[in-house]
Specification:
Helices cover 27% and strands 19% of the residues. It is α+β, with helices and mostly antiparallel strands. It folds into two domains: 287 residues, D-Maltodextrin-Binding Protein, domain 2 (3-Layer(aba) Sandwich), CATH 3.40.190.10; 227 residues, Dipeptide-binding Protein, domain 3 (Roll), CATH 3.10.105. The chain is globular and about 75 Å long. The chain starts with 53 loop residues before the first strand and ends with a helix.
C-alpha cells in the first residue's frame, strides 16, 4: 500500500479540533443533500479590487504536481484544493458531508451504487499569466464550457489508468467497481478497452454522475471530497499531455487560478473572478504568494520581519518564541501519525518478537515532552482521535514497556541484543529528523542493549525515501521513518488503506491473517456501533501484547505555529487541503505592521 509521508503543513496553523471523541458515523446511504438550483445562484463575483489583499506565504519545497489524479503530498494537495472544485466538501467542525460540485446524492439500497446530482454553472477557466486575464474556456463550437458529470467520470477512470501513475489510485481502486482490474492489469500498455468500459463510473446526463462500488463500502461517501476524484479537463490533457498543468496551459475550475509557478522560485495564485458567488468562500484573500526558502529557520526569520503571515517554529527557537509571542502562537492537531515502518519480508524484522521489542522500547512520552517539546501526543495504536472508529488514544496497544521489550527480543533469539545483525534506519533529510533518529538509537541501546553501531542511520530527500521503501527486499531499509495523514475521516483509511494485506502496493509485504478478515468485515458493516467495535479488535490485533506490530506508531502531531494577528484562517481543514478561499486578512492592520 502506498505510504503518504507527511510533514507539518505551514498552512495548518490555527484553531483546534476535539481530541476527546471520535468523529461522527459515516453518512447513511439514503442521505440526500440539496443546494439552490443553478438558476437561483448569485451571479459571478466582480473583478478583484484595485489593491488586492495578499497572503504572503513560504515553502521549503516545490510543488511536485498540480494534477489532481497524481498528487500525493501536502504541498500539491493544498494548491489543488484551491484550483479545483471537489465532488463534495467536508464540514471541518462536524465532519458532515457538504455539497460542492454535487448538490445532492443518494445511495442504492444494496449499498453498491451512488447517484450524484451536479450543478452545471461552474465554468472551466484559463488564466493568462502575461496579461493577468482570466477567461472562460469555449468548446470547439464556441460555446462556454462548464464542469459536467462527464468531466468527473473521465477523471475517476483516469485515476484507474495504470499508465497515469496515480499514487492515490491504490486508495480509490479497491472501492470503485472494475477500477482495480484496470489499475493492476498485467500489461499496462495493453489494457483491453472492455475493461476500461467496465469501470463503474458513468454520466447519464451532464448533471448526473453514477459511481458503482465493488462492495458496500459504508465509508465511501466520506471519500468523495478527495482530490483524486476531482474533475479534470480531458481535451486539455489530450492536447498537452504532462504539460497540461503548466502556467498558460492549465485549465481549472476552482476559487483561484495559477498565475505564477517558477520551479525552485516563487509561485502565486489569483482569485478566479468567474467563480459562482456562493462557491467563492468566506475569505477576502485575492492573491496567495509563496516564495521558496531553504529551511524552516529562514521562513521563521521572514515571519519575525512581518514578511510572511504564518510559519512553523524551529525547535531551537520554540522556547523563546513562546515567551515573546504568546498571543501570536497556536497549537494545532493535524491528525497525522508518525511511525516506524518495518520490512516484514527480510530478517530480522520478519520476526514478530523483534518488531514488538523495538516498538515497546521507544519511550513516546519522553519523546513528546523533551525531543519535540510538546508538539505531539504519544500513540500506541494507529488511527488518532477525530477519526471515525478510532479507539481512545491510550486504551489499545502496548506502547512503552521496557521489560516486555527485553522479553520479546530474547524470545526472538537476541537476548540483550547479542547476535543482532546491523540494520538500517532510513529517515528524511534535515537536522530535526536526524535528531529524532538518534533518539531512537539511544532508546534501543538503553532498553534493548543494541549499540548505535547496530542501527545505521541514513537520510534521503522525500522522493528518494519514498522510492527506497518500495524497492526489492534486498535493497529496502529495515526500518524507515514515515507518517500517514488522513485522506478521509474513517478508520479504514488507516488499517485498511495502509495495513491490509491485500493492498497491491504494500511496502511492508504483510502476510494475511485473521486481522485482515476483520478489516474486510468492518469496511462492509453498515451499523456504526458494530464498526467501532470491530476496529477496536483490529487495532488490538495489530498493536496489543500479542499483536503483529507491522509498524510502530509513535505520535500524532500537535504542532506549534506562529500566526500574525491580522490573519484569520477560518475553520481548520484537515482532510482535503488548506482552504485559502476561507481565510481573511485585516489588510489595513497588515500594511501598518509592514510600515506601508
Amino acid at each position: 500500500m502506498m505510504e503518504r509521508f507527511v510533514t507539518v503543513s505551514m498552512a495548518v496553523l490555527l484553531l483546534t479540533v476535539l481530541l476527546a471523541a471520535c468523529g461522527p458515523a459515516p453518512a447513511s446511504v439514503e442521505e440526500t443533500r440539496v443546494v439552490p438550483s443553478a438558476d437561483e445562484q448569485i451571479p459571478p463575483s466582480p473583478s478583484a479590487p484595485a489593491e488586492p489583499v495578499i497572503l504572503d506565504n513560504y515553502s521549503t519545497s516545490d510543488i511536485p504536481t498540480l494534477d489532481p489524479q497524481l498528487a500525493y503530498d501536502v504541498a500539491s494537495v493544498n494548491y489543488i484544493e484551491n484550483l479545483f472544485v471537489n465532488l463534495t466538501g467536508l464540514d471541518p467542525e462536524g465532519l458532515e458531508l457538504l455539497p460542492e460540485a454535487a448538490t445532492g446524492w443518494q445511495g442504492r439500497e444494496d449499498g453498491l451504487a451512488y447517484t450524484f446530482t451536479l450543478r452545471t454553472d461552474i465554468p472551466w477557466i484559463q488564466h493568462d499569466p502575461e496579461t493577468g486575464e482570466t477567461r472562460q474556456v469555449l468548446d470547439e463550437r464556441g460555446n462556454p464550457r462548464f464542469v459536467t458529470a462527464h468531466d468527473f467520470a473521465y477523471a475517476i477512470k483516469r485515476a484507474c489508468d495504470p499508465n497515469v501513475g496515480s499514487y492515490y489510485s491504490s486508495v480509490v481502486a479497491p472501492v470503485i467497481k472494475g477500477c482495480e482490474a484496470v489499475l493492476y492489469f498485467e500489461d499496462p500498455a495493453a489494457v483491453p478497452p472492455e475493461l476500461v468500459e467496465a469501470i463503474g463510473v458513468s454520466a447519464p446526463a451532464d448533471d448526473t454522475l453514477v459511481i458503482e462500488l465493488e462492495f458496500p463500502a459504508s465509508y465511501f461517501l466520506s471519500m468523495t471530497p478527495m482530490w483524486t476524484l476531482a474533475a479534470t479537463p480531458e481535451w486539455v490533457i489530450e492536447e498537452h499531455g504532462e504539460a497540461w498543468i503548466e502556467p498558460g496551459n492549465l485549465v481549472t475550475n476552482g476559487r483561484y487560478v495559477l498565475h505564477e509557478w517558477q520551479p525552485g522560485g516563487q509561485r502565486s495564485l489569483w482569485r478566479n473572478p468567474l467563480m459562482p458567488q456562493d462557491l467563492r468562500g468566506t475569505g477576502n484573500i485575492e492573491r496567495v504568494v509563496t516564495r521558496i526558502v531553504p529551511e524552516l529557520s529562514t521562513g521563521y526569520a521572514l515571519w519575525l520581519k512581518n514578511e510572511v503571515d504564518a510559519t512553523g517554529i524551529p525547535d531551537l527557537e520554540l522556547e523563546t518564541h513562546l515567551e515573546e509571542f504568546p498571543e501570536e502562537t497556536s497549537q494545532v492537531p493535524d491528525l497525522s501519525v508518525s511511525y516506524f515502518g518495518f520490512a516484514l519480508d527480510k530478517p530480522p524484522f520478519d520476526n514478530v518478537h523483534v518488531r514488538r521489542a523495538f516498538s515497546a522500547a521507544f519511550d513516546r512520552q519522553t519523546f513528546a515532552e523533551q525531543v519535540v517539546q510538546g508538539q505531539c501526543l504519544p500513540m500506541v495504536h494507529f488511527a488518532p482521535p477525530g477519526i471515525f472508529g478510532a479507539p481512545p488514544i491510550d486504551e489499545v496497544g502496548v506502547g512503552f514497556d521496557p521489560a516486555y521489550a527485553r522479553e520479546q527480543l530474547a524470545e526472538a533469539g537476541y537476548p540483550d541484543c547479542e547476535g543482532f545483525p546491523q540494520v538500517t534506519l532510513l529517515t528524511f533529510e534535515g537536522q530535526d529528523s536526524l535528531h529524532d533518529a538518534e533518539y531512537a538509537q539511544a532508546q534501543w541501546e538503553e532498553h534493548l542493549g543494541c549499540s548505535p553501531e547496530m542501527i545505521q542511520i541514513e537520510q534521503l530527500p522525500f522522493n528518494e525515501l519514498l522510492e527506497a521503501v518500495r524497492a526489492p527486499a534486498e535493497t529496502r531499509p529495515h526500518i524507515w521513518d514515515a507518517g500517514w495523514a488522513p485522506d478521509y475521516p474513517d478508520e479504514n483509511n488507516w488499517v485498511g488503506d495502509v495495513l491490509w494485506c491485500k493492498n497491491q502496493e504494500n511496502p511492508r509485504r504483510r502476510e494475511c491473517s485473521a486481522v485482515d478478515e476483520l478489516i474486510v468485515e468492518a469496511r462492509e458493516e453498515p451499523v456504526p456501533e458494530q464498526r467501532i467495535a470491530l476496529y477496536r479488535q483490529i487495532e488490538e490485533g495489530f498493536f496489543g501484547p500479542e499483536g503483529e506490530m507491522p509498524i510502530a506508531p509513535l505520535c500524532t502531531w500537535v504542532g506549534f505555529g506562529a500566526v500574525h494577528g491580522w490573519l484569520d484562517p477560518g475553520p481548520l481543514e484537515l482532510f482535503s487541503g488548506v482552504q485559502w478561499y476561507n481565510w481573511t486578512i485585516d489588510w489595513e492592520a497588515k500594511k501598518a505592521a509592514q510600515g506601508r
